[in-house]
Write a structure and sequence with these properties.
Layout lengths: L1 H49 L4 H7 L2 H20 L2 H13 L6 H26 L5 H50 L4 H11 L3 H14 L4 H11 L3 H16 L3 H56 L4
Length: 314
């Protein structure tokens, strides 16, 4: 009798354990399903948040500073466009392209220029008032420097961006040419070689080639895409590259041979530019040597003798 009760107790224990295990598995599966459903709901809400179709909702999502500054910049941009000649606007667009900025920044740049001209008189008056304890000449010079800074700094900053970007492009261009030659000698076409180069290299020139590649894939001809590349990057090396590729297409010359010659020419040009900068170094060092190094040197070497001669001694 005791054995039967023991067997029945063991069976009951197994049934309870099995029931609890099944309940635990069902609960875990339910929690996983609910968690995934909640995650899908949150992702759908985020997707709905960023896929707004109402213009007012899109404006509300933007930062407060952008919403407050956009109308003012728009008015100033229209004023600058009205009082700027057509050739000036085109030159600004060209400079923005060379700096790697889109044409849409032209209005913003004009707005900043107009704002700088409006701020210049107030800055001059503030500087003139602050320096009340100095002489009139110093106050006028400081006010003039403030006006010059307000009117010159925006254009100078844009030129500096252009110079920095073109320097980076000159440094990267020979490496891009070598990779293009390797890809084309391996059997790839020009478009495929450009795509592989853009994928493996990062930089300013790689971004420009990516834009040209996108234009070619969008249906533009190779000549038009390369012409656009030459307009955006107006340095002699890139223009020579564009001209060489166009001539190779017209006369049926091997593009890989042309690219190899272009890469060698660019490396020679970069070496010559480095040698030119090295030759300019002594000339640039002459000014600090004459005005900063030679006077104390002469004072130390000739000073004691001059003092002796001035005192009448020999």
């Amino acid at each position: 009798m005791s054995e039967l009760s023991g067997v029945s107790g063991l069976g009951l224990l197994l049934v309870v354990v099995t029931a609890l295990s099944g309940a635990g598995l069902l609960a875990a599966a339910g929690l996983v399903i609910l968690d995934r459903a909640d995650l899908r709901t949150k992702l759908r809400n985020i997707d709905d948040l960023y896929n707004l179709v109402d213009a007012r909702d899109q404006e509300i999502v933007q930062p407060v500073t952008d919403r407050l500054a956009a109308p003012v910049l728009g008015i100033l941009g229209r004023v600058g466009r009205k009082f700027s000649p057509a050739d000036r606007l085109e030159s600004i667009r060209v400079m923005l392209r060379r700096a790697g900025r889109p044409d849409g920044d032209a209005d913003r740049y004009l707005a900043i220029r107009v704002l700088s001209f409006l701020v210049a008189p107030f800055a001059a008056f503030a500087i003139y008032s602050i320096m009340a304890g100095f002489g009139s000449t110093m106050r006028l010079a400081s006010a003039g420097i403030a006006v010059a800074c307000c009117t010159v700094l925006p254009s100078r900053k844009l030129r500096r961006q252009v110079e920095t970007r073109e320097l980076l492009i000159r440094r990267q261009l020979p490496d891009i040419m070598d990779l293009l030659v390797i890809c084309m000698e391996a059997g790839l076409g020009f478009t495929s070689a450009v795509a592989r180069t853009v994928t493996n290299l990062q930089g300013e020139m790689s971004d420009e080639f990516a834009i040209a590649l996108g234009e070619m894939r969008a249906g533009s001809s190779r000549a038009d895409a390369l012409n656009g590349l030459g307009e955006r990057v107006q340095i002699p090396e890139v223009r020579a590259f564009v001209s060489a590729i166009r001539q190779a297409d017209q006369f049926g010359i091997s593009v890989s041979t042309v690219l190899r010659d272009q890469a060698e020419h660019m490396r020679i040009a970069r070496r010559q530019l480095a040698q030119e900068k090295a030759m300019k170094a002594p000339v640039k060092m002459l000014v600090p040597m004459v005005f900063c190094i030679f006077p104390p040197l002469f004072l130390i070497v000739i000073g004691p003798a001059g003092i002796t001669l001035a005192s009448g001694g020999f």
